[in-house]
Specification:
single chain; alpha+beta; Phosphorylase Kinase, domain 1; Beta-Lactamase; six-stranded antiparallel beta sheet; 14 helices; 14 strands
């Protein structure tokens, strides 16, 4: 096939990028938009096979239903009279998740990427889709600007590729044993159907590979499949050659449990436990002041993680106004990248825009009842004002007597919502 060929009447091929299980992947340029895409064309060996074409089209259809920052999107698909079935994907340029012979990853980096992959799997599982082929070869790392950062900091973003084996449970070909043997769950190796639990198992194998630098089982295909069914994996700490935190090791081994009922019930549950482990290990969190609340149990770590990841600005404040614990959203609202724990709330920008701020703190404590304050923040430059609603809720905790929560709305958006509710346009 010449690189100057045109597919679907609107995609000009600009060179070959690689090959998937059922087709070749090319760099393509949309003739009208001038934008570059990755275009996958069904292999000639499958082009005349109606069942293979149906699987190819099913892959395109399922993938086109999904939009997630950690999944490569399919934006178009169809049939070309000359080349047959094709699908068009966003062009993602990066590097493989695992390079051959690479050393084990740092725990911090592995946890960050695993969390992203778990998010991607949870997204597709909630839509009734099982990926069926989670493995290192189907994940690419890209370098993207972190929009949440105040600077131009770039971070590694994992992108899940290839939905060639993705299915909605209940398909006719469920009994086929397909997928990479190294990642195949025991029940799949024994001929069982693809499932969410099998994807979670593959995620556990991926975690094992990232943390140890090697797959849990190796050998010929039969040996690998039998090991998945019968052989417990070696401790990740032993394989790595250095201790891994017990909670992290337990997470990986739970995901790789032989019995699906003993694994995490979902990718979201895996992610939830991973968040807890990361917080216990103090990963991905800014340094806090001396008044920081430190978790003393997994349950406390879970609560703190939920508090910190909430999109609602929140803080725990002492009766004298000292901020003992705040979440990221609270710091962003105050324009503080380095955190505000240890400051007095009267020293922050809130004190200048919220009338009676400290009186509200003391009132909630003395009366033992929640109270509310409202404020408007003008931002200039033709931007709509922000309307703040602050709730001060008393807590029976010496040193952190007040739980402060803040709702933030743009004035125009609030008015539109009110008008919509009242039926005016």
């Amino acid at each position: 096939m010449g690189d100057d060929a045109t597919v679907g009447g609107r995609y000009a091929l600009d060179g070959r990028l690689g090959e998937g299980g059922m087709g070749q992947v090319y760099r393509a340029r949309h003739l009208q938009l001038g934008k570059a895409f990755a275009l996958k064309i069904i292999s000639p060996a499958f082009a005349l096979d109606s069942a293979a074409r149906a699987r190819f089209n099913e892959e395109a259809k399922l993938a086109s239903e999904i939009s997630h920052p950690n999944i490569v999107s399919v934006v178009d698909f169809g049939e070309d009279s000359q080349f047959g079935a094709y699908m068009v994907m966003e062009l993602v340029e990066g590097e493989p998740l695992i390079n051959e012979g690479a050393a084990p990853w740092s725990v911090r980096r592995a946890c960050d990427i695993l969390g992203q992959i778990a998010d991607a799997l949870d997204h597709i599982h909630r839509r009734g889709i099982v990926h069926g082929d989670v493995k290192a070869d189907n994940i690419m790392l890209t370098g993207e600007t972190d929009s949440a950062s105040s600077g131009a900091r770039r971070r590694r973003v994992a992108r899940l590729l290839d939905f060639g084996l993705a299915r909605r449970p209940g398909g006719e070909d469920e009994e086929e044993v397909n997928g990479s043997p190294h990642y195949l769950a025991p029940e799949r190796a024994a001929g069982g159907p693809p499932s969410v639990a099998a994807d979670v198992y593959a995620l556990g194998v991926l975690a094992y590979l990232m943390l140890t630098g090697s797959l849990p089982f190796d050998g010929n295909v039969v040996e690998i499949l039998m090991a998945h069914i019968n052989q417990p994996p070696q401790s990740p700490s032993l394989r790595r050659g250095e201790d891994i935190d017990e909670a992290l090791e337990a997470l990986v081994l739970r995901a790789m449990a032989k019995d699906p009922a003993h694994r995490h019930g979902s990718a979201a549950a895996f992610r939830y436990e991973l968040n807890t482990v990361m917080d216990m290990l103090d990963m991905g969190r800014r340094r806090r002041a001396s008044g920081t609340i430190k978790p003393e149990s997994p349950r406390e770590a879970t609560v703190i993680a939920a508090f910190d990841r909430s999109r609602v600005p929140q803080a725990l404040i002492s009766i004298d106004g000292r901020i003992e614990f705040s979440n990221k959203a609270f710091c962003r609202l105050l324009g503080q990248d380095e955190g505000v724990d240890g400051l007095n709330v009267s020293e922050t920008t809130l004190n200048g825009v919220v009338p009676g701020l400290m009186r509200a703190v003391r009132s909630a404590h003395v009366d033992g009842k929640p109270c509310e304050r409202r404020a408007r923040v003008f931002r200039g430059d033709n931007k709509p004002a922000l309307e703040l609603t602050l709730w001060f809720c008393p807590l029976p905790l010496p040193g952190t007597e007040i739980h402060l929560m803040i709702r933030v709305e743009e004035e125009d958006a609030k008015r539109r919502s009110r008008d919509s509710d009242s039926g005016s346009y």
